[in-house]
Amino acid sequence: MTEIGLPSGVRACLFDLDGVLTPTALVHAAAWKEMFDDFLRQRDGDDFRPFDATADYDAYVDGRPRADGVRTFLASRDTQLPEGEEDDPPDAQTVHGLGNRKNELVLEKIRVEGVQAYPGSVRYVEAVRAAGLRTAVVSSSANCRDVLVSAGIEHLMEVRVDGTTIRERGLRGKPKPDTFLEAAQDLGVDPAQCAVFEDALVGMDAGRAGRFGYVVGVDRVGQAEELRKHGADTVVTDLAELIGVPA
C-alpha cells in the first residue's frame, strides 16, 4: 500500500460527495424525511408510519438519483404515483413533484445552515493530489456544484459527474456503475486503476459492478459490516485514517 493508503496501481480517486466529502448526507436525510412525512400524513392521516431518516434513507434513497429515490421508497410502501414531468411544481402529487419538493427543502437547509467539508476529507484529497493522482467527484445530486462551492473544495476536483450529468448524458444512477465509469473516462484512467470512495451501500455496489481497482467504504453511521458485505475493500470512519493523521 502507498502512503495514501491505496494499492500502488491506483492513478485516480473517485469521491462520492454527500457523507464522504461533506456532511450533507444528514441534510438530505432530513429533507427526505420532511417531504415524505408530509406526503404520508396527507395520505394516511396522523396515524401514518413516518419515514425513518436512517433505515429508510439507507435502504431506499441514499446515493440514488432523486426520482429513483422517490420511486424506490414509495414502492416499499406499496405506493405508486404518476411520473409527471421534471419541472413539476413541488406540490404536485407525482414522482417528480415529490422529488422537486425534497430539492427545495435541501436548498433551503443549505442556504440557512451552509456547508463545510469534513476536515479529514480535505486533508486526504490534498494528499492524493500531492501524490500526483487524479480526482473526480461522483454524486447523484443535481446540487453537487453548489455544495462544492459552498464548502470551498471545488478546486480540488478535476472532474464532476453529478445529477445534471446523469440527465444530460442519459446515465443510469447507482447502484449501476455508470456514473463512476463516466468519471474514469473523463479523467482518461482505466477503471481498474481507480479507487472509489463511498458511504452508501448502493455506492459500494456500483464500485464492485464497475470492476474498479479499490473500493473504500466511509462509515459515518455505524454500518461498517454492511459496507464490507456490499464490497468495500477497506472501511474507515474518516478519510484521514488512510494517511495516518487525526480527523
UniProtKB/TrEMBL annotation:
GO terms for molecular function: hydrolase activity. Its cofactor is Mg(2+). It catalyses: beta-D-glucose 1-phosphate = beta-D-glucose 6-phosphate. InterPro entries: B-phosphoglucomutase_hydrolase (IPR010976), Beta-PGM-like (IPR051600), HAD-like_sf (IPR036412), HAD-SF_hydro_IA (IPR006439), HAD_sf (IPR023214), PGP-like_dom2 (IPR023198). Keywords: Carbohydrate metabolism, Hydrolase, Isomerase, Magnesium, Metal-binding, Phosphoprotein. Its EC number is 5.4.2.6. The keyword Ribonucleoprotein does not apply. It is an enzyme of class 5 (isomerase). PANTHER family: 6-PHOSPHOGLUCONATE PHOSPHATASE, HEXITOL PHOSPHATASE B. Belongs to the HAD-like hydrolase superfamily. CbbY/CbbZ/Gph/YieH family. This is Beta-phosphoglucomutase. It comes from Actinacidiphila polyblastidii.
